[in-house]
Amino acid sequence: MSFRIEEKLMISKNSLIDFKRFIFEKKAKLLYPKRIINSLYFDNEKYQMYDDSIEGLVPRKKIRIRHYPNEKKVLYLELKISSEEGRFKKRKIIEEKEFYQLKRDGIFDEQYGFCKPVLFVNYEREYFLVDDVRISIDTDITYTSYIGSHLGNDSNCAVELKANYKKNKNTLLNQFPFQRTRFSKYCNGIEKNQFINI
After folding, report:
1. How confident is the model at residue 103 (pLDDT cuts 50, 70, 90)?
2. Domain 4-192 grouped into CATH 3.20.100.30
3. Does 196 have pLDDT greater than 80?
4. So what's the pLDDT on residue 96?
């Protein structure tokens, strides 16, 4: 288990070029090639993961199955966990057969109980490194309900800073003096779904 600090920044599409110029002036290195990410999120019938995320409660988690459509089809079951000690992610590869089973039968979680698939989120991600800080930039974010209804696109970019939990948070934010946000792609997608009573 590896705890980390995560901070999200509010960067509009119009300001993205300025943000990239800023990180390149700080000698940003490309970590991985740009790629498409598709995530299928799960939640229980009361949408408690959504509620806990909105309220900022801990412990909380998000459950998703992720794959990279333009690469060899490998499916990952991921738990993104926020606790009092920090944030961390658990990930394991699953077979395609298990993927279809989980979509059909759902996932049982000790905290949230029975969880069903509710939302697809698709986007393009770029990865950079500035000193000891990993930066991901997500653009062209689209939301689709599990039943296949297109819910719309996001007007902003999701920029996330990730660093070792020992790094001072104020130091991290001083390195990147941009507006912080509690941007959650999952929550944004749920809020776009007019058929869900939340």
Report:
1. very high
2. yes
3. no
4. 95
In the chain, alpha helices (H): 16-25, 48-55, 96-105, 169-175, 185-192
Q: How many Å apart are CA 135 and CA 100, to the nearest integer? A: 32
Residue whose pair of structure tokens reads 């792609």 in the numeric block: 185
CB atoms within 10 A of CB 104: 9
User: Domain map of the chain by residue range?
Assistant: 4-192
- Residue whose entry in the numeric block shows the structure tokens 């759902």: 106
Q: Which two tokens stand for residue 101?
A: 């089973």
Rounded Cα–Cα distance for residues 5 and 2 (Å): 10
| Residues in Cβ contact with 130 at an 8 Å cutoff, skipping those fewer than 6 apart | 23, 26, 27, 28, 29, 175
Give the highest mean pLDDT range of 80-84, 110-114, 191-195: 110-114
- The beta-strand segments (E) located in the chain are 4-12, 29-43, 60-67, 75-82, 87-94, 107-109, 113-130, 133-145, 150-153, 156-164, 180-181
Q: Say if residues 196 and 116 touch (Cβ distance below 8 Å).
A: no
DSSP tag of 100: H
The answer to whether residues 178 and 26 touch, using CB atoms and an 8 Å cutoff, is no
Angle (nearest 5°) at CA 55 between 91 and 57: 55
pTM recorded for the entire structure = 0.93
